[in-house]
Amino acid sequence: MPQTPPTDPTFRPEHNPLIFDPKGGMPRLRAIMRALRDPDHGCPWDIEQDFASIARYTIEEAYEVADAIERGDMNELKKELGDLLLQSVFHAQIAEDQGLFNFEDVADGISDKMLARHPHVFGNESRDKSAAQQTRDWEAIKAAERAQSGAAGALDDVALGLPALMRAEKLQKRAARVGFDWPDIADVTDKIVEEAQELAEARERLTQVEIEEEYGDLLFVMANLGRHLGLDPEVALRAANDKFTRRFRGVEAKLAEIGKTPAQSDLTEMDGFWDAVKREEKSDKT
């Protein structure tokens, strides 16, 4: 049963009773956001926000969704998906307040896009083709959409706000589609050696800004190597981060067994424990 709206004298009719319905679903969430943004009776913080001010929260929520998936925590995933959904509703409400578009426009737009990009499901095209062919068809449809939107260059609509490694991979994929790519993985590894050498030399003779540029070049080529290997560099680096975290915690545990902390140890001792943790991990896998 819906809860009775509060009897607080500041309560106004625009605070729809739907807000207090625990089973109100999507309409309830949108009503809550409209109330939060109400210029007379809403929340001052929510009223002050704009697209730019909440953009970072949108990015953070997307990462927290990915984190819950990676940890296999389905209860947390449900919560994080709600947080991410709230961000979409928030942006759409800001747009509606400014007379730009509303949530229905957003939902209709993505629905239209899904119909257009799946003619083998919603149209007359045959579903009797490989996943690889469907991927090629998907990219062809996306290319046509970009052309229709006025994106003339191959890299025109690669989002600036993507994480740097992810954006590097997308830029390289786009360039590769028009033939700007090394034909063999050996060319990529040769370029990595070249860039690493340039970085080593830069430390001796260049400014910090120039060193940063050389370091960026090396990271960019490393992302390209991942693409040639069929790997997602963002996923690979996340896994490496997790591995480092797990092993360093193992080092801390071994130090704790002898009554020490890392600050009370030295590199030689910690490196020995690191090797021991690695051996134990390998032993557990066999």
Question: In terms of topology, how is this protein built?
Answer:
Elements: H1 25-36, H2 44-48, H3 51-71, H4 74-97, H5 103-117, H6 119-122, H7 131-148, H8 164-177, H9 185-205, H10 208-228, H11 233-257, H12 267-285
Helix pairs in contact: 1-4, 3-4, 8-10, 9-10, 11-12
Largest sheet: none
From the N-terminal CA to the C-terminal CA, the straight-line distance is 56 Å
Tell the overall outline. extended
Estimated structural class: mainly alpha
**In CATH terms, what is the architecture of the domain at 17-116?**
Orthogonal Bundle
Report the CATH superfamily of the domain at 17-116: MazG-like
Mean pLDDT value: 89
Enzyme class: hydrolase
Catalytic activity: ATP + H2O = AMP + diphosphate + H(+)
Protein name: Nucleoside triphosphate pyrophosphohydrolase
Keywords: Coiled coil, Hydrolase
Question: Which tags fit this structure?
Answer:
286 residues; mainly alpha; Helix Hairpins; extended
Description of the molecule:
The protein is mainly α. Among the domains are: 17-116, MazG-like (Helix Hairpins); 118-152, no CATH class; 235-285, no CATH class. Helices cover 70% and strands 0% of the residues. It has 12 helices and no strands. It has helices at residues 25-36, 44-48, 51-71, 74-97, 103-117, 119-122, 131-148, 164-177, 185-205, 208-228, 233-257, 267-285.
